[in-house]
Amino acid sequence: MSQAPDLQRQWADAFGANPDRRRWAGSFGSDAERYDRARPHYPDALIARIVAGSPGRDFLDVGCGTGIASRQFIAAGCSVLGVDVDARMADVARAAGLEVEVAAFEEWDPAGRTFDAIVSAQTWHWIDPVAGAAKAAHALAPAGRLAVFWNVGRPSPEIAEAFGEVYRRTMPHLPYLHSGGRSALDAYSSGFARATDGIRQTKAFGEPEQWRYEWERSYTRDEWLDQVSTHGDHRQFPAPKLEEILAGIGAAIDSGGGTFTMGYTAVAITATRRLRPMNACRVDT
């Protein structure tokens, strides 16, 4: 139990709490097509609940990337404008028919536009939680919904141990990887807390809620290795080290029959904009 806070801090540093890590947000576009192909979608029940809980269907997708979540909202009957810091990711989204503006969200100008919902899938940890929530409040219609959400992997104990052994061998100096993802949900809790606190600090929203949906997806060896190559921390590893990791994980999957099922928990932090914000944080535009 004494190791849990250290592990949480290591995950937080790797996934956005450390401002130096936020530069990673602009690195995914170097392999945008792989990202679009390999990253998982989000459970339909979560998408439907966000749509049903919004006053209309005019959505803004913050950190839309290649448009994975945007396309799900469009399929649910919404119109979606994307904002992303990486022009290369935006180009892939545009090729799929999405409208995307390139900017860091904290600096993006809504130009007088307001939206019924602002969503952010797998991205909010790259955004300052207070400035981001304040910008969202500025661009939301009264009673509009802010919903930021993540897929967090829940590998089986057997898969977690097999993957953890690879990381212990190849990356002994990065203990947060050594559980093979088994403790990812607990470790992500610090990010959920930052998102919740940022929303509260604006005083422009009602009390944030946390929604959770469990789901699962089966992967072949090649499908999983494709996704691992898109992980933000892994993209910072030297190419030979990443190849060693991928070879080890591939061998672990092969030893289990070549396929496995990954459990996921989709976690959303969400709140509605007050009809009359109470001394909301100032937003410079």
| Beta-strand content | 15-25%
Secondary-structure arrangement, i.e. CATH architecture: 3-Layer(aba) Sandwich
Return the string of H and E elements.
HHHEHEHEEHEHHEHHE
Q: What is the CATH H-level superfamily?
A: Vaccinia Virus protein VP39
Strand order of the largest sheet: 3-2-1-4-5-7-6
Label the structural class: alpha/beta
Task: Provide a short characterization of the protein structure.
This protein has 285 residues and is of the alpha/beta class. 40% of the residues lie in helices and 22% in strands.
Commentary on this structure:
The protein has a single domain (4-155, 182-218, 261-272), classed as Rossmann fold, CATH 3.40.50.150. Strand 1 (58-62), helix 4 (68-75) and strand 2 (79-84) form a beta-alpha-beta unit. The chain has a seven-stranded mixed sheet with strand order 3-2-1-4-5-7-6, with helices on both faces. The protein has helices at 4-14, 32-38, 44-52, 68-75, 87-95, 129-139, 157-170, 184-202, 221-228, 239-255; strands at 58-62, 79-84, 99-102, 115-121, 140-154, 209-220, 259-272. It is globular, with a radius of gyration of 19 Å. With 285 residues, it is of the alpha/beta class. Residues 1-5 have low confidence and may be disordered. It is built from ten helices and seven strands. Helix 2 crosses helix 9 (221-228) and helix 6 packs across helix 8 (184-202). Helices cover 40% and strands 22% of the residues.
List keywords for this structure.
Rossmann fold, 10 helices, 285 residues, 7 strands, 40% helix, 22% strand, seven-stranded mixed β-sheet
